[in-house]
Amino acid sequence: MPEQSESSLPPNVIEIHSPQRDSLRVDSMGGRITLKLGDVQILTSVTRGDGKKGETHPCTPIFGPDKNNLFGLSQHGNMRNEQCVATKVSESGNETVIVTHDIADAPSSYPQGVKVEQQFSVKDGKFTFRMTHTNNGEEEAPVNSGEHLYFSAPQGFERTLINDVNVTDLIKNDTAIRIGASSIIKIPGLPELVLDQVGFNYVMLWVGKNADGQPDGDYVCIEPVEGDPENFFGSDESMIPPHGGSRTAWFSISVSNKV
């Protein structure tokens, strides 16, 4: 992700940088992002084995499919494929990108009036992501949001460790696991990473496959999500009350300072 001047960027793209040579690129089309920490590509763009382009994107108001067909929502919701509003804010020398979007998925069945605000920042070698849902509608609305992170895997995803547990088979089998407030992630070819979170209590482990069923090899998806994709959406915990009710979750990614 080479640095570009603002004038040379596409009109829908915003970049921010830190003195530590971290850089974040945000596309207002779908709120898609790529990330470098220092000179290392952490979140990347890929061409998957199924031919689709993969890039880190939001999943809301649902993570994964609407398995119980509660509202007829599409996989991961529509925000990732819709034009959002993106703004760069500078304060005291620090830059933040704010992306907002009004959820209008399945208007005949899903409660209307839910607004999403994402905040992205890089500072002191750390990427921080904050996601807030506000329900300005008349009915309570279920939300199970997440961020579909495409991590670079320069030496392949096999032997990826989370808190020193080898999760290779879990990745191959598209598995959601519960995580604590702080986790150590070791992806072959990347520096050791720290994932801190509040409100994103699970991660989905996933990698795409080609037409022959062989897993892709140059990336791995470790996707923070609020609740278990199997049963959280539609539960009492998932509901955001109407008339201004809101819920915020956040996570950060940083390079471990462990020597």
Task: Give an overview in words.
The chain is mainly beta. The chain has a single domain, classed as Distorted Sandwich (Beta-galactosidase, Chain A, domain 5), CATH 2.70.98.10. 2% of the residues lie in helices and 44% in strands. It has one helix and 23 strands. The strands form six sheets. Strands 8-9-10-11-23-19-18-15-16 form a nine-stranded antiparallel β-sheet, with no helix packed on it. The protein has a four-stranded antiparallel β-sheet with strand order 1-2-3-4, with no helix packed on it. Strands 14-21-20-17 form a four-stranded antiparallel β-sheet. A hairpin with a 2-residue loop joins strand 3 and strand 4. The two termini are 27 Å apart. The model has no long low-confidence stretch (mean pLDDT 95).
